Amino acid sequence: MSIPHLPARSAVAVRRAAAAFGFMAALAAAPAALAQAPEVPVNVVNLSASGHMEVPQDWLTVVLSTTREGSDAATVQNQLKVAVDAALAIAQPQAKPKQLEVRTGNLRLYPRYASNGRISGWQGQAEVIIEGRDIANVSAIAGRVQTLTVSSMGFSLSREARLALESQVQAQAIERFRARATEIAKGFGFSSYTLRDVSVSSADMPERPMPRMMAMEAKAAASDAAIPVAAGTSTVSVTVSGAIQMR
């Protein structure tokens, strides 16, 4: 009568043995797992330092535009083409790479609708952009264009000036980061530090661009004269952020 119960007891014994084996295996693996766990960093400080330099803006961008209206799209488009071609005929012969650059901007053509929802006419706008480091010539050419008027203008740093300045400011920021890291380590009673991670970011912050309305009023007052302009300044800033481990 006891024979039928043997398989059940055997199964229980097997399960108990397996559980015991698994427990022992886990205990055996625990030291290895602890040995492989990453060491928690100690004496780590996060800090940042910045360098900045303010310089005169050396790049002027003038956007000239015109608006035309008509009963059909083809007529408006042709009127815009005539106005742009006349502006390019004045500006393009003076173009020099980096000094004075001329290009066309946006060209928009869209319908006007009457109260009944039907198209009653067309309106379009075209742009010509004159820009460069030759600020006097850029403003003079823009003032000579008669078929378009100034819609916006602004100063900025040329790419070459920004890159050259950024290199100097970056060196300044790195030096300040190192000095601050040394000061912090000594303040906590350590003699040195190691760099754990670092990042470098830069920004160009323009200051006080010339108001748009001032330029447009100057254009209206003297249609064939150079547009009066006054460059502002830009501040190039570089920030170095990172973590150090004091030793």
Give the CATH topology of the largest domain. Alpha-Beta Plaits
The strand line-up of the biggest sheet is 3-4-2-5
Order of helices and strands: HEEHEEHEHEHE
So, the CATH homologous superfamily of the largest domain?
Protein of unknown function (DUF541), domain 2
Helical amount: 40-55%
How far apart, in Å, are the first and last alpha carbons? 76 Å
Overall CATH class of the largest domain:
Alpha Beta
User: Which parts are unreliable, with pLDDT below 50 for 5 consecutive residues or more?
Assistant: 208-222
The assembly state of the depicted protein chains is single chain
When the domains are counted, the total is: 2
Would you write up a description of this structure?
It is a single chain. This protein has 247 residues and is of the alpha+beta class. It folds into two domains: 42-58 and 157-209 and 224-247, Translation Initiation Factor IF3 (2-Layer Sandwich); 59-155, 2-Layer Sandwich (Alpha-Beta Plaits), CATH 3.30.70.2970. Helices cover 40% and strands 36% of the residues. It contains five helices and seven strands. The chain has helices spanning 6-36, 73-91, 135-144, 159-187, 212-221, and strands at 44-56, 59-70, 101-113, 119-132, 149-156, 193-207, 233-246. The strands form two sheets. It has a four-stranded antiparallel β-sheet. The protein has a three-stranded antiparallel β-sheet with strand order 1-7-6. Strand 3 and strand 4 (119-132) form a beta hairpin. The longest helix has 31 residues, at 6-36. It is elongated and about 90 Å long. 19% of the residues are buried. The model is unreliable at 208-222 (pLDDT under 50).
